[in-house]
Amino acid sequence: MSRVRDFWNSNRRNPNAIAYAIFIIGAIFYPSIVQFLNGGNGDYLVGFAADGGIYILMAIGLNVVVGFAGLLDLGYAAFFAIGSYTYATVASYHLGVTPIGHALHLPFWIALLIGMFVAAAAGALLGAPTLRLRGDYLAIVTLGFGEIVPIVFRNGEVWTGGVPGISGLDVPSLPGWFVGPWIGQDFGWVPDFRFNTGNLTAYYVLMCFLIAITVVLVHNLYNSRLGRAWMAVREDETAAAASGVNTVTVKLLAFSIGAATSGFAGAFYGAKLSYVSSENFGFVVSVTVLAMVVLGGMGNIPGAMLGAAVLYFILFRLLPDAPAQLQSLASALGLDFLNKADPNGWPGIGEVVSRLKYVIFGLILVGIMLLRPQGLLPSQVRKQELKHAEHEALTAPRQLQG
Amino acid sequence: MATAVQRLRGTFLPLSFNSGLNVIGILVVLVALFASTQRVIEGGGTYFFQTLGFGLAQGAIFALVALGYTMVYGIIELINFAHGDVFTLGAFFSLAIITSPLGALIGLTPSSSGAGVILPLLGLFVVTMLFCALVNIAIERVAYRPLRHAPRLAPLITAIGMSALLEGIMNVWKGPYNLAYPDFLPENQIPLGGGATIAAKSVFVIVIAVVLMVVLTLFINRSKLGKAMRATAQDRDAAQLMGIDINRTISATFFIGAALAGAGGIIYGLYYNSVQAFDGFQYGLYAFTAAVFGGIGNIPGAAIGGFVIGIVFAMSDGYFTTKWTIPLIFAILIFVLVFRPTGLLGMRVPEK
Q: Is B349 in a helix, a strand, or coil?
């Protein structure tokens, strides 16, 4: 007990340690809790959390770009798409139907890494010429890139499966030396770790594992020389360059690492869904992830994760349920007229609520930036910066900000 | 700024790579021009003029929207992502007036047509432009002004947020459907001689846009407020020391930009007879491409860029395939930013 108290006392002023501890405990007990609460039928909730993990991964990656290096990437979904399609190409029957005529089925882990590296390479290719430009040009270039990529995949005909996309992707698998020779045998006492739709807990565990690896890697990067260089570039690019930081390389690394994380998440997404289609990678994905990072706290890894979890829950759990609940609430209160749709005006309260998604994005992005720019779970450094930026901007000559 | 960029370039890319990039850029442009010239010759004159008219009309709308982007960027160096949605709001608001009893009161209903429509339409333009302008001023007041001294990232994020908010509000209001916009304009073709024709619709759109742009140019170059805008764009602090009310000038910029976007919204509705809540975002991106093409911050550049992008759009649709038009436009955006970030009329961008 005293050790818990010691931990608490030494970390009271460090909300990140507490947040990490809560995340770990929550992640371990979440499946048992939801199964218990739903009488053993909580599998869909475990799967729901596994899907949310993809957004958490993407938020961690975008946090590197937006939070650490201070670059606005509005085409983040493009790298997600590239990761997914790469996975689909190297780990499915798809290449067999292209003119190549020979299907590739690379092992899951290698395909995952290939998806990641291809996305990182795409990020580097896009970033190398554009990162020399001013920061806000990057926003518009990535926005354009984010619009192009899904269209290219849609128009790619036989190479990308066209409008229907690619289906029948290989599901994840664990290496044989890891699971042992008894995999697939019906022993009963060996946990079944095959990945299929009936075993969502396996996906959940895999997702937690991937997130843990990513957090450790990104956390180490942040505390490295590169992380400090990111901070310097974000704060004042000219001063950073004058202090010997190679600003372009540093920014390019941030951009590529963000893209790599997105590609990694995308590859897992393809494997989980066993299906990719260009419809799933529109601008709305980019803006969702951005809103998650801004909500949670730019520049703070647990903040981005928290923001992703909260917004994911709101968008994919509360919002789909809200119309029906509000409709029953309205009729319970005797406000039935709210439910009636009028062909030329009021579409009914359920319909109105179901259209609220973009309003939520807007309110989060504008409200957080105006009222609490450091986000829900702020990074201590970033908080100071955002608070004191005003003084600096007033005293420093303006041309230095470019 | 310029020296900083050059220094950054020097550290990362050796000079030879930069000139290599330029050679590649010129080659790509030449190949594209060659391919399209061939197609145009095969297509024949009548088809060419039809496409050109369509492109000019589309370009006129792009230009109107691009002017707002470029003015705002020129004065506070912010990409106002919400601008494209203010444009859609113009179409939505005018449509709401036409379909409401108010529309019948001033003599505009979805089924009216003929010459009697001209005067009420003029009124509709004025009201819509005013409405959009006030909305844009409110956006600037709420979302950009408090963050004027914050890190650059902050206003960009609120701009994206405002864009999402406007889209969301329009989506809640009318739903994600294509709404029919009444067709007030004549459908006939005006002969140009030699069998070539141009749609009367296109002429109307181009004339209105050009008139608005001429008024804007006169205003910026002749009026006192226009002078204040140019001064603020050049050096905000110095302008302030000369007794210019910076906040008022910036508000005026947002007012004018949004008024033009609102007019563009009505023209868009009248021209395409259909409008949807999320149209403006994409359309705004094309217009932004036009602004970048002409040289961001440069008013004549935005107008020229708008027409060029409109023509490229129409030519790509007409001579190649519609499937690849949108990637082409964004490829131009990336291309221009990479090879010539100052745009077509580059050197006149205010440097800060």
A: coil
pLDDT in tens, B154-211: 898 999 999 999 999 999 888 888 888 988 887 788 887 777 778 888 888 899 999 9
Specify the 3-state DSSP secondary structure of A357. Answer: helix
Chain A residues within an 8 Å CB radius of B172: 352, 355-356, 359
Helix (H) / strand (E) containing B220: helix B200-222
> How many domains is chain B built from?
1
Q: What is the pLDDT of residue B351?
A: 39
Which residues make Cβ contacts (< 8 Å) with residue A147, sequence separation at least 6?
A75, A283, B282, B285, B326, B327, B330
Nearest alpha-carbon partner for A365 in B50, B251, B205, B147: B147
- Residue A298 CA to residue A289 CA, distance in Å, equals 12
Cβ distance B4 to A402 less than 8 Å, yes or no, reads: yes
Q: What is the pLDDT along chain B (352 residues), one digit of tens a residue?
A: 444 444 434 333 333 445 566 677 778 778 878 877 877 777 777 788 888 888 999 999 999 999 999 999 988 888 899 999 999 999 999 999 988 888 777 777 777 777 777 888 888 999 999 999 999 999 999 999 998 888 888 898 999 999 999 999 999 888 888 888 988 887 788 887 777 778 888 888 899 999 999 999 899 889 999 999 989 988 888 999 999 999 999 999 999 999 999 999 999 999 999 999 888 888 998 999 999 888 888 888 899 999 999 999 998 888 888 888 999 998 888 888 877 777 777 654 443 3
B6 inside domain: no
| Contact criterion met (CB < 8 Å) for A369 and B154 | yes
Q: Write down the residue that tokens 């419809």 correspond to.
A: A279
Residue type, A3: R
By Cβ distance, the residue of B11, B156, B168 closest to A139 is B156
Distance from CA of A285 to the nearest CA of B (A): 13
Please give the pLDDT value at position B5.
42
Terminal Cα distance for chain B, rounded: 7
CB contacts, 8 Å: A70 with chain B: 151-153
Distance of CA A55 to the CA centre of its chain: 3
CB nearest to B337's CB, from A137, A385, A390? A137
Domain assignment present for residue B286? The answer is no
Greatest Cα pair distance, chain B, in angstroms, is 67
Q: What ipTM does the predicted assembly reach?
A: 0.85
Domain that holds residue B273: 57-186+193-277
In chain A, which residues have their Cβ closer than 8 Å to the Cβ of B290?
A: none
From B288, B226, B269, B265, select the one nearest B80 (Cα to Cα).
B288
3-state secondary structure A205-221: HHHHHHHHHHHHHHHHH
What are the boundaries of each domain within chain A?
Answer: 2-401
- Facing residue for B334 by CB, picked from A141, A247, A352: A141
Give, as one character, the DSSP assignment of residue B145: G
Q: Would residue B182 count as lying in a domain? A: yes
Q: What is the DSSP letter of A64?
A: I
Domain presence at residue B254: yes
Which among B147, B172, B330 has the least Cβ separation from residue A369?
Answer: B147
Contacts of B343 in chain A (CB under 8 A): none
CA A202 centroid distance within chain: 20
